[in-house]
Amino acid sequence: MDKLKLRKIIISITILLAIGISVFSFQLNEILFYPGNLNIIKGEKKNLDISFPFSLDYNDEESIVQTIYNEGSKSYNLNGLETGESQLQLKLLGLIPLRNVNLNVIERPNLVPGGNSIGVRLNTKGVLIVAVTDVIDINGERSSPAKAAGLKVGDSILAINDEKIVNAEQVVEILNNIKDEEIKIKILRNNVEFDTTANSVKCLQDNSYRLGIWVRDKTTGIGTLTYLNPVNETFGALGHGITDIDTGKLLTVEDGLIMNAKVSDITQGKKGVPGEIKGVFYKTDEILGDIKINDEYGIYGNLEKDYIKNNDLKSIPIGFKEEVTVGEAHILTTIEDNLVEEFEIYIERVETHDKANQKSMIIKITDPRLLEKTGGIVQGMSGSPIIQNGKIVGAVTHVFINDPTKGYGLFIEWMLEKDGEL
């Protein structure tokens, strides 16, 4: 064999090995970062692209899933037989364990997609401190009883002298009744409660007793309803939590309401300047439900029974994160009065987060009418349900400041997990 021929053979083998290593590395990377939880719908099939040298090991005495290896496609078909929980193991060469995957066979939930504008009224747990300031007393001396007591912006005052605090006016009344005597204050900070003491001072400005704090006890705003669940009479909305405008802190919920709202005006979104949907709502309007939870992925609560009874609610199945694909989709939202409409979008990117994340997907508004009306995604549109292939797959969460035609979406299953439904 001459040297030229031998050299060609070596080059060919080297190229094949390089391709093999590249493919191996790519698939190994996918295996190592494969989601730790896998949902399979009872009565449906799921395909897992796992091929040699990798394999799937499944040993379930209850047989909630049937696993079939497809030689043609070099992949596994999983058939959901019965609801339940089990575990899969991904292996290298059938011997070396690489990753465990929790397997859940569930019934596919059905939800009523929202899209309607809602008014949100949230009462905080206690009162939220939004500013800590100095006080000038009647002798002209400057001090800050709040700072001396260790109070900080973002703290919530839950009680004063064991009296539960429900609004700002109550704090003023208590301080002026107690005057300059020492008071005991129960504080909530980062979900941890503790007690401190303080002495208010008589203010030179109006002769009232003050600690040197500004507090807020409620907030209102406009958002979009994501879904209704008529089975257990619950709802989810916004796709992100409600934070205080001054502190940026997630508000702790004492109670709250959502109610119907009408869009009155829209400020278009532009590069560097987010737009806004403005709406009107009144407490006497039809109440949709009570807010029970406010977390970083939305607000959740119970629906009014009369609302369910008096409305023809049509549900559609949800799509899990593994089913969301790059491609066309649409959102439901309200840009005029109280009319819910469908607008085209394009899902540009789908993330493979194993834990809940507000930035589950990147979406782009493509509907000409919506772009003309709003410029893209605007404040108040958060929570608009994202529909793809006839399934509700997520909710709009945030807009790109430098490009209002684009924004983030949150997988619907993350919202349902926070709502306790998955």
Features:
15% helix; Thrombin, subunit H; 4 domains; Immunoglobulin-like; six-stranded antiparallel β-barrel; alpha+beta; 422 residues; 6 helices; single chain
- Structural class, please? alpha+beta
- Which percent range describes the beta-strand content? over 45%
Name the overall outline: globular
Report the count of strand segments.
31
Structural commentary:
This protein has helices at 3-32, 145-148, 168-178, 305-310, 368-374, 412-418; strands at 37-41, 45-48, 54-58, 65-70, 75-80, 84-92, 96-106, 110-113, 117-132, 135-136, 142-143, 156-160, 163-164, 182-189, 192-199, 201-202, 209-210, 213-229, 234-237, 253-260, 262-267, 276-280, 287-295, 298-303, 316-317, 327-336, 339-350, 361-365, 385-388, 391-400, 403-411. With 422 residues, it is α+β, with helices and mostly antiparallel strands. The protein folds into 4 domains: 1-31; 34-107, Immunoglobulin-like, CATH 2.60.40.1080; 109-124 and 222-422, Beta Barrel (Thrombin, subunit H), CATH 2.40.10.120; 134-211, Pdz3 Domain, CATH 2.30.42.10. It has a 6-stranded antiparallel beta barrel. The chain has a 6-stranded antiparallel barrel with strand order 26-27-28-31-30-29. A hairpin with a 2-residue loop joins strand 23 (287-295) and strand 24 (298-303). Mean pLDDT is 82; it is low at 17-24.
